[in-house]
Automatic annotation (TrEMBL), chains A, B:
Pfam family, any one: FAD-oxidase_C
Name of this chain's protein: FAD-binding oxidoreductase
Organism: Sphingomonas populi
Cofactor(s) it depends on: FAD
Record GO biological process: respiratory electron transport chain
Keyword Transmembrane: no
SUPFAM superfamilies: FAD-binding/transporter-associated domain-like, FAD-linked oxidases, C-terminal domain
Superkingdom in the source lineage: Bacteria
């Protein structure tokens, strides 16, 4: 711990008490690496305030001392966004003790949750009042509201309800100098200059610390139906989605899954079985919900809408889960795709988006281009077709050495895929953010105007560059390889 | 015209041709004042490029020369946001020649419109393809897409479809140094750092010039119904809205109108008549639409939903327009409120928002507080109750001298009303923006942290402070009266 860090730690201990400071190596260690074990950092201490005032105190002190801070919620970043630098130059600022749900108003369809509230806990709390917070993802048992907001998280219900950006109605945050942005009021209209809330959403903790968020709720679902559908190709899948959306607003999940990914799940995940007989090249998992007994039952709705699609040949085969257990089994296949893939060997994974209409062609052509350019790999994409966002994964040739692959072909493939994404007008980070993992690729692939704007904003709001250093935007242009 | 301006004008003439430069005083004059005649400025020339490249050329030159520019679309600002400074220090940058609709995709529900496209023209063009751009307002015959985006415009359909912020899928803009932000791609998910599109929306041209926008469309409406409803007070009106919204997603207009405002319309606007017999203290105009023949007809829907509200006494009386002509007549009353008020004498007008649930009480209590504090005035609020946004108007005592009123009591009342809004956690500009009209009040009422952040962002992206000077944020803190 350097002198400035020591001074900060002692000052925080005096101001906020012993509970707000963690210096025991054993307690710190689990938070120094990301959950996938790809990034390893070092932090001499964790600061853990339990109020917004405490956060403000810490930031004012850190700003004065010039001590970098890495904010952390559930530490579930996919891009190393919450892992401290390896040189020990930063302390971790944990928001986990700020875990109160300050208010739930069922009548207003609003909840106010502190940054450290775990998503699953919020789901449960609003559920007790007949409401639902309509964003969910695999890490819901660990991911926190502050992190979800700071990364503009997505998930499997974005199709109907949008990402965090659309679900956040207000933000309380502490800016890098310790001043407080009091923006929790849920104003549907507010044109008082630049929208600081929107700027903080997706800023990955580089512009300040979100301490609490006002969230929009929807009525709890009263019924759902889950269908498993086989289609010839992604184009037919998208046409099916458009048919469904033209007829109903009840569709909230629409996940495309290639046949070989399904096969990996059947091969590697115990207890799974194929929902449909026969072999199909593409599959779609569809979920429809109702929140009112007066609405058409989702199962009847899907049956009614899928029948003509089958008759016309747009859908090759389809089954609607006959029970909640079967619905869960269908979703388990979807949720096991990454795990099954990991079990089968190393892969280069990409969370990318292109305009929705272009995605079917991109999925086919980009996979073919990868397989042609890197002989022996298998490329395939699965996920949120209706959002124009898929997880585009390229699996190493059978028998590839993982260490060699991740050091050599893996990054080369990532650059190749990202080039294709940029050529298609897409984004190299659809929902996972930049963190440290995508920093170099963002620099390599962004227009100079865009990078200059990101740096200017960062420098304007965090002039000492102490908030989550080394994430999202680099202090100076990263030198490009010759 | 000063030397730098002359040099810029000549350089633009050479680069973009004579059509891109207007120096005739008669041609400039109409654009030097706002449409309500409250703000009068002076611009030695208008620059009028017709391509994004032309805008980039102009900004690069202006940046190099340090010449301030005031962007202008339809010049329909409610807050003097498009009026140049009086000292002639700025040129007008008109986007009106950039009026192409570059693309409409009915299948994707997207359109790409240049900044100078007039809203009504966009409505017509997408209508021909069975689509609707679901934002409209009184100035639709003049207001342009660039201005609507730069001011995050609202209007009467925000309840269902949101403000421009929710309807913009992509932005092409030129940053102050002439570099181009190419963000038109309609990516539903894109987490590549700070969201520059969201930052430009509502920035009032102070951070760069929006040159084209990708807009979300919805299916064209196939049917609508308009109801006029009498209620006892705003609380009952909000309860009615919640009842309707719990049962249907078809409600897209819900405008509250006080009885005395209706009376002003009946007194001053020829050809209007009260939709309901008898006298009522509060009225609500409700519009429901359908975009599919399979949906319940909106008139039947409203009848079905209003019947129990009448039976329970939540609604005192109601009528559903029996014809499109009658529906238009109901809307004409709503759209004539401001005109009728102007005909009755001077008034201090405020476009404000508070959290939706607090609005009924605010409307009553703030009006009473105004009338108690300023004897003889009449305060009332009308508008978008479901958005938590009303136009809160305070009319001068009968016989007040307009010039004296606007110089003395008017501003005092505005400060009084704005104080009440801030105390209620609301916004002093819900949908009109800050422009030059609200600049002092924004400074007076914002937290120092917020003002510092606005200034820092402005200075970071426009270091010479040449984009729309004197609007939205002041270069230095405005001295406060002792």
């Amino acid at each position: 711990m350097n002198t400035a860090q020591s001074a900060l730690v002692e000052a925080v201990r005096v101001a906020l008490g012993d509970k707000a400071v963690v210096t025991d190596r054993h307690d710190i260690a689990p938070w120094e690496s990301d959950w996938r074990g790809r990034y390893h950092g070092h932090a001499p201490a964790i600061l853990a305030p339990d109020t917004a005032e405490g956060v403000a105190t810490i930031l004012a002190l850190a700003y004065a001392q010039g001590v970098p801070l890495v904010p952390q919620g559930g530490n579930t970043s996919m891009v190393g966004g919450a892992t401290p630098p390896a040189d020990g130059s930063a302390l971790i600022l944990s928001l986990r003790r700020m875990n109160r749900i300050r208010a739930i108003s069922a009548a207003d369809n609003l909840a106010v949750a502190e940054a450290g509230v775990i998503l699953a806990d919020l789901h449960a709390a609003v559920g007790e009042q007949g409401r639902r917070f309509p964003l969910t993802l695999g890490a819901r048992g660990s991911a926190t509201i502050g992190g979800l907001t700071s990364t503009n998280a997505g998930g499997t219900q974005v199709l109907r309800f949008g990402t965090m950006r659309g679900l956040v109605a207000g933000i309380e945050a502490v800016l890098p100098d310790g001043s407080v942005h009091a923006g929790l009021a849920a104003l549907k209209k507010d044109n008082r200059g630049y929208d600081l809330n929107q700027l903080l959403i997706g800023a990955e903790g580089t512009l300040g610390i979100i301490t609490a968020v006002t969230l929009r709720l929807v009525p709890a679902a009263t019924d759902r139906a889950v269908a498993w559908v086989a289609v010839a190709d992604p184009a037919d899948a998208l046409a099916l989605l458009r048919r469904l959306e033209a007829a109903t607003q009840a569709i909230e999940g629409f996940e495309i899954i290639p046949g070989d990914s399904l096969q990996l799940v059947l091969d590697h995940i115990p207890g799974t079985r194929a929902p449909l007989a026969g072999t199909h090249r593409w599959h779609v998992l569809i979920e429809a919900t109702a929140s009112d007994a007066q609405e058409e039952a989702p199962a009847a709705l899907l049956e009614r809408l899928l029948a003509p699609a089958i008759a016309e040949g747009q859908v090759a085969d389809a089954v609607i889960a006959a029970s909640e257990a079967q619905a869960e089994a269908f979703w388990r296949i979807r949720d096991s795709l990454s795990e099954a893939e990991r079990a089968s060997g190393p892969a280069a994974q990409h969370d990318i988006s292109v305009p929705v209409a272009d995605m079917p062609r991109f999925m086919i052509e980009a996979a073919a281009a990868c397989e042609a350019r890197f002989p022996g790999v298998r490329a395939s994409a699965f996920g949120h077709l209706g959002d124009g966002n898929v997880h585009f994964h390229v699996r190493a040739p059978a028998g590839a050495d993982p260490a060699l692959w991740y050091a050599g072909d893996g990054p080369a493939i990532t650059r190749f895929v990202n080039d294709l994404v940029v050529a298609a007008g897409g984004s190299i980070s659809a929902e996972h953010g930049i963190g440290q993992m995508k920093l170099h690729e963002l620099e390599r692939l962004s227009a100079p105007a865009r990078l200059a704007a990101l740096r200017a904003i960062k420098g304007a709001l965090d002039p000492r560059w102490i908030m989550n250093p080394g994430k999202l935007v680099a202090l100076a242009p990263i030198p490009r390889a010759p």
